[in-house]
Amino acid sequence: xxxxxxxxxxxxxxxxxxxxxxxxxxxxxxxxxxxxxxxxxxxxxxxxxxxxxxxxxxxxxxxxxxxxxxxxxxxxxxxxxxxxxxxxxxxxxxxxxxxxxxxxxxxxxxxxxxxxxxxxxxxxxxxxxxxxxxxxxxxxxxxxxxxxxxxxxxxxxxxxxxxxxxxxxxxxxxxxxxxxxxxxxxxxxxxxxxxxxxxxxxxxxxxxxxxxxxxxxxxxxxxxxxxxxxxxx
Amino acid sequence: xxxxxxxxxxxxxxxxxxxxxxxxxxxxxxxxxxxxxxxxxxxxxxxxxxxxxxxxxxxxxxxxxxxxxxxxxxxxxxxxxxxxxxxxxxxxxxxxxxxxxxxxxxxxxxxxxxxxxxxxxxxxxxxxxxxxxxxxxxxxxxxxxxxxxxxxxxxxxxxxxxxxxxxxxxxxxxxxxxxxxxxxxxxxxxxxxxxxxxxxxxxxxxxxxxxxxxxxxxxxxxxxxxxxxxxxxxxxxxxxxxxxxxxxxxxxxxxxxxxxxxxxxxxxxxxxxxxxxxxxxxxxxxxxxxxxxxxxxxxxxxxxxxxxxxxxxxxxxxxxxxxxxxxxxxxxxxxxxxxxxxxxxxxxxxxxxxxxxxxxxxxxxxxxxxxxxxxxxxxxxxxxxxxxxxxxxxxxxxxxxxxxxxxxxxxxxxxxxxxxxxxxxxxxxxxxxxxxxxxxxxxxxxxxxxxxxxxxxxxxxxxxxxxxxxxxxxxxxxxxxxxxxxxxxxxxxxxxxxxxxxxxxxxxxxxxxxxxxxxxxxxxxxxxxxxxxxxxxxxxxxxxxxxxxxxxxxxxxxxxxxxxxxxxxxxxxxxxxxxxxxxxxxxxxxxxxxxxxxxxxxxxxxxxxxxxxxxxxxxxxxxxxxxxxxxxxxxxxxxxxxxxxxxxxxxxxxxxxxxxxxxxxxxxxxxxxxxxxxxxxxxxxxxxxxxxxxxxxxxxxxxxxxxxxxxxxxxxxxxxxxxxxxxxxxxxxxxxxxxxxxxxxxxxxxxxxxxxxxxxxxxxxxxxxxxxxxxxxxxxxxxxxxxxxxxxxxxxxxxxxxxxxxxxxxxxxxxxxxxxxxxxxxxxxxxxxxxxxxxxxxxxxxxxxxxxxxxxxxxxxxxxxxxxxxxxxxxxxxxxxxxxxxxxxxxxxxxxxxxxxxxxxxxxxxxxxxxxxxxxxxxxxxxxxxxxx
Lengths: 233, 933
Fold this sequence. Notes:
The complex is a heterodimer of chains A (about 230) and B (about 950).
Chain A: E1 9-22, E2 25-38, E3 42-46, H1 53-60, E4 68-73, E5 76-77, H2 83-93, E6 94-97, H3 109-119, H4 126-138, H5 154-167, E7 172-176, H6 184-201, E8 204-209, E9 220-225, E10 228-231
Parallel strand pairs in A: 3-8, 3-9, 6-7, 7-8
Antiparallel strand pairs in A: 1-2, 1-4, 4-5, 9-10
Chain B: H1 2-11, H2 13-56, E1 62-70, H3 76-92, E2 96-105, E3 108-112, E4 122-129, H4 132-135, E5 136-141, E6 155-160, H5 161-167, E7 174-181, E8 187-198, E9 216-219, H6 221-228, E10 237-246, H7 256-269, H8 280-334, H9 339-373, E11 375-377, E12 380-381, H10 393-417, H11 422-430, H12 436-440, H13 442-459, H14 462-469, H15 476-507, H16 514-526, H17 531-566, E13 570-574, E14 577-581, E15 584-590, E16 603-618, E17 624-632, H18 634-640, H19 652-660, E18 665-669, H20 671-674, E19 683-687, E20 693-702, E21 711-715, E22 721-725, E23 728-732, H21 733-739, E24 747-752, H22 758-767, E25 772-777, H23 778-786, H24 789-823, H25 825-833, H26 838-879, H27 894-921, H28 924-930
Parallel strand pairs in B: 4-9, 6-8, 17-23, 18-20
Antiparallel strand pairs in B: 1-10, 2-4, 2-10, 3-4, 3-7, 5-8, 6-9, 7-8, 11-12, 13-24, 13-25, 14-15, 16-17, 16-19, 16-24, 18-23, 19-20, 21-22
Helix pairs in contact in B: 1-9, 2-8, 2-9, 2-10, 2-24, 8-10, 8-15, 8-17, 8-24, 9-10, 9-24, 13-15, 14-26, 15-16, 15-17, 15-26, 16-26, 17-23, 17-24, 17-26, 17-27, 24-27, 25-28, 26-27
């Protein structure tokens, strides 16, 4: 199923549990999750809502910490990193695409994409501008560079978000329901875009979805059910 | 509906708390003004009366009538007069102190029952005075009895000591009137029962002191009325005096108008107008009226901007709240609720807030007015001066107006929003547009108007002083101009602010870190949303600056001026007895003992100053100009006087040195050169009131001299103001003293040591039994100048205005920020997810605060400074006393500014702390989830 198991693993999740305190007790959102995603793979994380997808994504994205277990990104255990290090990891090596529109409303399409490069510390210059345009062309918005988020449709905004997530050439892209707001054709287009990127740029992508039609597109599928891993162990 | 409203109130509790705070403050401020004014007027009125009593020693609130009842059939004249006097106080609306009737029969000859020769041919007046036993003490014998008659039917009388001595009558003697008979035709016999004197020296009952009642025998009042008035009045000629005294302490400011009207009727139109003198209090009330007009107009002008700011704040808040609820409203609307229903919901909510605001604001207004009354300077209070607060109908009217305004301001935004459906809302949100005022160039229009005002006042600035003298208020346009200027400048800054931020962005374009970059972009795109709160901040700070300067300048100049005009700590002039030789006045005076001044322990030094008026300068063409000559001991004089700061090019002591070395020299005021054309080295001749002349060589011209005012201003009888030049010649005391035989008494100028107050001097004067004709005490005079209700009120209103606006500013600013951060929580989450550090987020928000808050504060400071430089000199002129002698100096005291900046800094720090708290509470995953809904 996976392209190559022997290649170096970019995402390694070992025995991760996540317990949230809730009024009157605890809620175990994740139970003993083990995930290994090699470089250049498009992994699909599926499951019903409430199955713990977003929690796992947040933990892999270093936005949240597991109650127990370890997460390694590119071989580095993130649990021992300082906040600052984790933030630097996020801004350089990760790209996020969120379910809802997540563009900065005061920046236009170009600036939004450029912003992730700024954060990643890529210097201003022709090279950077070229890369921004390239990414926007890749998502089919090469002619709407100057448009503000408010002037674009939900699908267009989501594509800008994808362009932003890839612009600084991260090692990993974490996409939480990126197609939820899109029609199926557009959803398929985005998925294709992701496939292309894994191939062209060697990016590892973890994407959640509950769109059954997109499952086949992935190199591997991880399925969660009530916090437990039922597929992709 | 009501439940829905309560639910809404609870839902947005912070917002509603702020709205409530705004409405409380607005109503309290509104109420405090009439409360304060009324209380200040009451105090001012009382001060006027008390000053009068202290200076004149007589009871000011008194109406006196004098007429004669001559053989009047059935005594109707007296009955009518008594009735009128008894009802007078009720008519005037004042509290009666005492009505005094004083009736005297015409003088008639008496003889002694003992046939004493000394009494033969003596004329006495029999009379009565109401309630004499209450006000007199018997120094010899006894008071007349209740029946008023002795056992043998003689009338018991008492006489003054003066009468006893003057008329040479004896206590216990019975006197018989030769030509005065009772109703039955029997000669009237009086029995001298006792000798009386005033029980208390200052009792206003004694309008005629016993010393002057030399031929008067007073008898029992009831008996007098029985025997000589009513049906018996036809037989007698009676001089009737009535004194109607009322309490001045009880007169409140709002009674003044009625009192004036009734008094004028009494003295000008009423049936007794020919019998009554214009009472002394009428003049006092006139003076008071003039002051009141001036204060009223001034305070009103000062209050309006504060009220406008308050209203604007409420408007902003309620607008902001509707903005937050827009989505909800639009949804309700789209589901079919009518605009009217939505409007009603908001109306109820506003009504509720207004009523609660009123309930709390009206009592708070009283607290405010007490604070107002205790303001000594800008942001400086003196708790010892409590005002007596009364709720007048006027105050209730203000409260009602304040509540109506609150209700209106809070409801207006609802009218707009109740029409918006969700479709329109989305359309509106997509629009980015310039503010209406930017398109209308309101900033330039306001600046144009204010500068027009500025220049027109600049041109005829001299007239302002005249207005003040005539008791008119300062021109509202003058204050308005400065307010418009501040507003115009504030708006201009708002227009420029995005450009400034853009410029900073461009300059550092290559270096800005992501956080700064986002904040620049935020300001460029969303900066306009903050314009209102920024304007609010600018106005608060700049008006605060401006007002601090106004208050300090006016106060400082007023007290400096008094210090200067007084010349020394204490200036004292004794009464000198005129010299009499062979029964005629010689025109000279007898100098009192000067050595006693050495006994003033508190005096650091003292010197004699020979100030001579009624001196004429010989113009050389047989015309004369009145001048004043001052003879001084240069060394001593220089030791205890000074001139503030750098007034002339030359130091004050240089003048004194010039004079010291030339016995024939004089120093003269600059107008000798400017108007009379004299030069240094010229000789002038001047002559005193006894035609003794003296010459002097002009050594120098001075602009200022201790106690010297270049001009003398006053009012002509027709009400116009005049200004005369004041010519002063300063010469040596000894030269002047020896040269003129006829000179007026000198003054003693005293320099007091630290810690010796006016009570000390007062005690010294008492101990030495000095008869003083002129007495200035610098400390007292400065205190009086500072306590002027106009200055007090101005400082109070300015301080309160500043505190209220800065409080609102802080609240408004915080609300804006909290809401702004709340609405952007998701974006912050995204930024954090993208790897932005907390510090960077903080940096970003700091930048935004700097662009809006800090920029506004600095703009406010700059605008405040500029406005002060431009407008304070003119405003000060309007406040200046009629005797302003010193050049006006713009005063900004560091301590005032520190207080001002301290308040602002505290506000900013609180805002910052709240920001930090918000950022640290920000949960990334939660924030992102927020975005998922």
